[in-house]
Amino acid sequence: MDLELRHLRVLCAIADAGSVGRAASDLGYSQPAMSTQLHRIEQYFGHPLFERNTSGVELTRYGTEVLAQARDVLARAAAIGRRPATGGTGTRRRLRLAATNSPVLAGMLSRLRSRLPDVALTLSSVYPSSEIVELLEHGAVDAAIAADYPGRELRHSAAVAHRGIVTEPSFVALPAGHRLRYCREVALADLADDAWFLTPDDGAGWPGVFYAACRAAGFAPAAVHEFLGDQQQLQNMIAEGIGISIVQATLRPVPGVLVRPLVGAPLWCRYVLAWRRKGLADELADTLFGSATEAYRALIAQSPHFRTWASRTWSVAKP
Predict the structure, then answer these.
(1) What is the pLDDT of residue 132?
(2) Run means of pLDDT, 10 residues per run, the chain, 319 residues
(3) How far apart are CA 74 and CA 69, in angstroms?
(4) Strands 244-248 and 50-53
(5) Over the Cα atoms of the chain, what is R_g?
(6) 20 to 30 A from 129, CA-CA: which of 157, 180, 210, 282?
(7) 311, 312, 290: which is closest to 107 by C-alpha?
(8) What is the pTM of this model?
(9) Looking at residue 78, what is its pLDDT?
(10) Treating both helix axes as pointing N-terminal to C-terminal, what angle do 282-301 and 304-313 enclose, rounded to 10 degrees?
(11) Given the DSSP bridges, would you call strands 223-226 and 160-175 parallel, antiparallel or unpaired?
(12) Taking Cα atoms as reference points, which of 65, 33, 69 lies closest to residue 50?
């Protein structure tokens, strides 16, 4: 078999979906045809690229190396023949992005750099989604990733458009020695006596949705530490037993930290791509959205705790 670009796209689709079946659906193949294709590709490389498990597939170490090269080849192929996008004065076109704390950001940016090599990307980290909307409304940024919550959808004028990237359940991060460490899922009410790390008001509904979920579970948090810092620092404090925290479902725990689903999934968060209608062409908005959704699928592929939960309760993460 000669290796072709379509084979590399198959590898990327399987890695992003975390499942041969889901990748087959995304590409319009039957699952047997996709499995046969993967078998031939692995025969070509002479080593397994994926490990099979009950919830799907995971990249082997060798597969991770091959996938990185495959993405690079595909990006270079897509850029063949493109002319630099300029404003007529020889300067590169700028794309100003803003983003709240979002798991898809890093993967989205890496894909954009490959797909838009002639666009100068600038990023502003902005925590409150309400402030992100203001920046879009005033033309300070062109597009952004914001967050909202079911029943509290993002509000903005007609000058701004938005599209949901994914709505995911919120999980809880616990120290490895926590009394509930052996529970497959944790009831929110069983955490009533724990101290919590909470990020401040994001202007979109947090932490109000958290306190509402606690009230519905019959308690008020015993102690709250307000925290707005990097995930590494947060996880280090959780590992030391200082507190617990609501976290993104695809969070990769560090040693000493466990990530568990909440019974009944009482908390959900939606990540949203928003953009200025006049400042961003539809084609570019589609590129941003596609990069974000692919980045999220890659996160799922690397999050066994999320895939295990999804295999029981949610067939596939959907926008």
Answers:
(1) 96
(2) 87 84 83 91 92 82 82 72 52 86 89 86 93 95 94 91 91 97 96 96 95 97 88 93 96 94 95 91 86 87 85 54
(3) 9
(4) unpaired
(5) 21
(6) 282
(7) 290
(8) 0.70
(9) 67
(10) 100
(11) unpaired
(12) 65
Torsions phi, psi for 72 (to 5 deg): -65, -45
Specify the pLDDT at position 234.
93
pLDDT at 311: 80
Could you give the CA distance from residue 267 to residue 246 in angstroms, rounded to a whole number?
A: 9
Structure-token pair, residue 78: 């897509």
**What CATH fold (topology level) applies to the domain 93-164+269-313?**
D-Maltodextrin-Binding Protein; domain 2 (3.40.190)
What's the pLDDT at 91? 57
Over the chain, what HEC string results?
CCCCHHHHHHHHHHHHHCCHHHHHHHHCCCHHHHHHHHHHHHHHHCCCCEEEECCEEEECHHHHHHHHHHHHHHHHHHHCCCCCCECCCCCEEEEEEEECCCCCHHHHHHHHHHHCCCEEEEEEECCCHHHHHHHHHCCCCCEEEEEEECCECCCCCCCEEEEEEEEEEEEEEEECCCCCCCCCCECHHHHCCCEEEECCCCCCCCCHHHHHHHHHCCCCCCEEEECCCCHHHHHHHHHCCCCEEEEECCCCCCCCEEEECECCCCCEEEEEEEEECCCCCHHHHHHHHHHHHHHHHHHHHCCHHHHHHHHHHCCCCCC
Residue with tokens 């799907």: 56
Q: Tell the CATH topology of 168-268.
A: D-Maltodextrin-Binding Protein; domain 2 (3.40.190)
Cβ distance 34 to 23 under 8 Å? yes
- Cβ neighbours for 76, distance < 8 A, ≥ 6 positions apart: none
Alpha-carbon distance of 250 to 134, in angstroms, equals 28
Q: Could you state, in order of their start, the residue ranges of all structural domains in the chain? A: 5-79, 93-164+269-313, 168-268
Q: b/e for 108-139, b at 16 or more Cβ within 10 A?
A: bbebbebbbeebeeeeeebbbbbbbbebbeee
